[in-house]
Design a protein that fits this description.
Helix content: 40-55%
Structural class: mainly alpha
Order of helices and strands: EHHEE
Distance between the termini: 21 Å
Number of helices: 2
Radius of gyration: 19 Å
Number of strands: 3
Bound molecules: zinc ion
């Protein structure tokens, strides 16, 4: 791939389909992120519901918690750098330009 590549869709119908597909993908990412968040929340609570800090977790719990944190971080990073949304303004309904130097997609207005 070249250093920069812009993908422009002129047809309003195709733009609508593109935007819809981006929404579906980003919604799937949000749902997965939330699932991981809920699992982390379970680990970081005592049975009475009070918050348990990482230093009070068992080694197994902490390792699991850290794995989930990494998973969440990777998921966010993949979504942020995808063509589904501009890494600067977060809009997902625009034509995008890939910038190899930053390994990210930017909308044509940013
Ligand atoms: Zn933008």
């Amino acid at each position: 791939m070249r250093d920069r590549r812009t993908i422009i869709i002129k047809s309003p119908q195709l733009r609508k389909i593109r935007n819809g597909l981006r929404d579906i993908l980003l919604t799937a990412v949000r749902l997965e992120w939330k699932k991981i968040f809920d699992e982390m929340n379970k680990i970081s609570r005592y049975s009475d519901g009070t918050k348990k800090s990482v230093k009070n977790m068992s080694l197994t719990e902490e390792a699991h918690f850290r794995r989930l944190q990494n998973k969440q971080s990777k998921l966010r990073n993949i979504a942020d750098r995808s063509i589904c949304k501009c890494i600067t303004c977060g809009k997902g309904d625009r034509d995008m330009t890939y910038n190899k130097a930053y390994d990210s997609w930017y909308c044509t207005e940013c």
